[in-house]
Design a protein that fits this description.
Layout lengths: L11 E7 L5 E7 L6 E7 L3 E3 L5 E3 L2 H11 L7 H16 L5 E3 H15 L1 H11 L5 H35 L4 H6 L3
Parallel strand pairs: 4-6
Antiparallel strand pairs: 1-2, 2-3, 4-5
Helix pairs in contact: 1-2, 1-4, 2-3, 3-4, 4-5
The structure holds zinc ion.
The site of zinc ion (ZN) has 8 residues, from loops.
């Protein structure tokens, strides 16, 4: 890597650190010729393609500041916002793609935000999905209610299921589970 100050083709790494989430490596470098120092960051490439067709590197802080606007006045603290940003980045990076549509980023935010705060979710969804009238809100609220009751049902089913399994255990629970799929 060339020195950005004097273009000397040789620089020395003096410190290497892995970012707190493991997504980036930071290297502190020094130029042996001019003695100046600079930092390089190495990450797997993840470009966000905007609707205009322009692209920019994925930026977790942008996700967080977008969500923060939707969270104004809601009981959500900075740590929860940070955690949401982390989840969104993890979700997107786990797809293993080098580029992703900005719509996908918005969609990846919806799930974790819904879990965090329903009101903030509605605000964010109304902007992101271009709600135009009350019907759009009504529909989104209906979906939200349905998801909530489906989640409750799933929870109940899980409890019943594990109770059943517990009873079935003496007769070979292992065969029971492997035969399932
Ligand atoms: Zn230099």
């Amino acid at each position: 890597m060339h020195c950005p100050f004097c273009q000397n083709p040789d620089t020395k790494v003096i410190d290497t650190r892995v970012g707190e989430d493991g997504y980036a490596i930071r290297r502190r470098r020094e130029c042996p010729k001019c003695g100046r120092r600079f930092t390089t960051v190495e990450t797997a490439q993840l470009l966000v393609i905007k609707r205009s067709g322009n692209s920019e590197p994925f930026n977790r802080d942008k996700v967080i500041s977008g969500v923060r606007k939707a969270c104004q006045g809601r009981p959500i603290d900075e740590d929860e916002l940070k955690e949401l940003g982390r989840k969104v980045e993890e979700d997107l990076r786990s797809r293993g793609l080098a580029q992703i549509d900005s719509d996908e980023v918005g969609r990846a935010i919806l799930g974790p935000l819904r879990d965090l705060d329903k009101v903030a979710y509605m605000r964010f969804a109304s902007v992101y999905q271009n709600f135009e009238n009350l019907d759009d809100f009504e529909k989104a609220i209906k979906d939200l209610r349905e998801q909530e009751s489906a989640a409750d049902t799933a929870k109940d089913a899980k409890v019943t299921h594990s109770a059943e399994q517990h009873v079935a255990e003496p007769h070979g629970a292992e065969r029971h589970t492997t035969g399932r799929k």
